[in-house]
Amino acid sequence: MLLRESPGSSAQRTCSEMLLNVCAALDEAGIDWCVLHGYATYPEDVDPDDVDLMVRPEHFPEVPRVLARLPGVRLVHFRTHDGGTSTRYDVVSQTPEGIPVILGLDVASEIRDLGIRLLSPEEFLAGRRRFKERLWIPPPSIEFGHYLLKKLGKSAWFGRDALDGEHEACLSALFAEDPEGCRRQLARFFPKAEAALIAQAAHHRRWETVRSQLDTLRRAAARKTRLAHPQNLLRYWAGDVTRGIRRVLQPPGLMVAFLGLDGSGKSAVIARTMEALGIFFSSAKRYHLRPSLGAHGGDDTPGLEYEPARGPILSLAKLGLWWTDYWLGYALDIFPRLVRSTLVLFDRYYDDLLVDPQRYRFGGPLWLARMVARYLPRPELVILLDGPPELLRARKHGADFDDATRQRGAYVSLVRGLRGGHVVDASRPLDEVAAAVQQIIQRHLSARTAQRLRLTPPWTPSRSARS
Q: Fewest beta carbons within 10 Å, which of 103, 212, 238, 308?
C-alpha cells in the first residue's frame, strides 16, 4: 500500500493536481462520474491508493483513453477485478523535484459484492452533487448503502476490524443527511429486524451491537439480495469466469531477470524495486537463478573458488535438470503468480550459464546450452547491471575477477541481443541505479498497458537500451 503523504508536501500537491486533472478531463470528455467515498479531505489531502470512481458502463472503455492523454501523467498499469466491471489504473507523475508520485484509481461501472450485483451506476449518478466545486459525489443515501455493504463484505476477511470508529462516524453522518433515504436502502438489502438494528445504530451513533454481528448481517444481506435478484448471481459468476480467462491470456503480473557481475548491486536494486514498484501488483516474489521447486543446488551459489567443471554426461544431465526445473517451476509456481498479478524478480537467470559456465561447473557444449535457452520461459525484461570490473572488485573484496572483463563483454553482447534487454550503468550511486531500473520497468508497463488497451503509446520502446 502507498504511504499517504502529509498535506502540503510536494508529493501530496502533485497527487492532488493529478486527481483534479483526471476529474477535469472526465468532465471535458463528457463522462458522467462521481467519487464513491473517502472524499472528505479531497482535493487537498488525497489517499493515493484509494480513489474510487463510478462511471456509466457505456463510458467505462473511454476512461483509459482519457488517462492516457493527460499531459505530464503516464498511465503505467491496470488490472481488472469484480468480474471485469472494475479496473484499477495506476498513473504516475513527478513533483517539481523529479520525484515520482503514483495515484491509484479504481474505476467501476457497477457495484458488486456479497456474490451479486448490488448497485447500478444510475443510482450513483442520477442524484450526484458537487463537492468543493471540483468533485462529483453520490447522494447520501446511496453512499450510505454502498459504504455499509462494502464494510460488510470486508468483514469476511477482517472480522470486526472491517468497521472502525472512522467508518462508523462516516455512516452516521450520511444517515443524518437523509434518514428516510438511508432507511429505504436498508430495507432494500436487509430483513426488517436487521435493517432496524442498523438504522438505530446510525441514528444514535452507537455501533457496538452492529460490530458484534457483522458476520450475521453480511450473510443476511447476501441471502436477501440473491433471492431478490437470482439472475444477477449468474451474471456475477459469468463475469468472474470471463475475467479469469482474460487474466490467463494476459497475466497482469511481470517477470524481470537481473544479470551482472558479482558486486554489481543486484540484491540491493531488487530490494529497492520490490519496495518502489510493488504497489502496481498484488504481491512480489524474488527468486535466485531458477525456480527451484525443491532446495537450491549447491553449485548454484558457489564460493569464491570455482570447482572443476563436470564431464560432458553430467553436464548434459544438468541441462536436463535445469530445463525441467524452469518449466515445472514456471507452470506450477511462477505463471499462477503472474495471473494473480505478482511482480516476479530473478537474481540471475539461465543466461548466466552462457556467460560463466565455470561458475556452474558446466563442461558440455555451449551451443547446446544456447539452444536450450531458446526453449525456456523468458522474462519480459532482462536488466544487466553493468560496471567496470575494477569498480566491482572494490565492492567485492577477495573475489576472483580474472575473467571479469570477458564476462562483462559477454553479458553486454547477450543482453543487447535480447528482446526486452536493457543495460544499466551500475557504477553510479545506488539511488540513481535503482531509479533508472524503475524507469525502465515503468516504461515497459506503460507500453504494455497501451498495447493491451489498444491505446496509442506516447513513444516506441526500444528493443534494447542502455540507461
A: 308
CB-based contacts of 254, cutoff 8 Å, min separation 6 = 281, 338, 343, 344, 380, 381, 441, 444, 445
Q: Which value, in Å, is the radius of gyration of the alpha carbons in the chain? A: 26
**Do both 134 and 147 map to the same domain?**
no
Dihedral sign for Cα atoms in the order 256, 262, 265, 271:
positive
Going by C-alpha positions, the residue among 60, 49, 47, 37 that lies closest to residue 280 is 49
For residues 438-450, one letter each, b for 16 or more C-beta atoms within 10 angstroms of the residue's C-beta and e for the rest, the string is bebbbbbbbbbbb
287 and 167, same domain (yes or no): no
What pTM was estimated for this model as a whole?
0.83
**315 and 402 belong to one structural domain:** yes
- Residue 413 · residue 31 · CB < 8 Å: no
Residue 289 belongs to a domain:
yes
Do both 104 and 180 map to the same domain? no
CATH of the domain at 373: 3.40.50.300
On whether residue 247 sits in a domain, the answer given is no
| Structural domain contains residue 248 | no
Q: Are residues 214 and 268 in the same domain?
A: no
326 and 221, same structural domain? Answer: no
Encode the chain (467 residues) as per-residue pLDDT tens digits. Answer: 454 555 668 999 999 999 999 999 999 999 999 999 999 999 999 988 889 999 999 999 999 999 999 999 999 999 988 767 899 999 999 999 888 999 999 999 988 765 566 788 999 999 999 999 999 999 999 999 999 999 998 888 888 899 999 999 999 999 999 999 999 999 999 999 999 999 999 999 999 999 999 999 999 988 887 765 656 656 666 666 777 788 899 999 999 999 999 888 999 999 999 999 988 999 999 999 999 874 444 445 544 456 788 888 999 999 999 999 999 999 999 999 999 999 999 999 999 999 999 889 899 999 999 999 999 999 999 999 998 877 666 555 545 556 788 889 999 999 999 999 999 999 999 999 999 999 999 999 999 999 999 986 543 443 444 45
Structural domain boundaries enclosing 85: 1-138
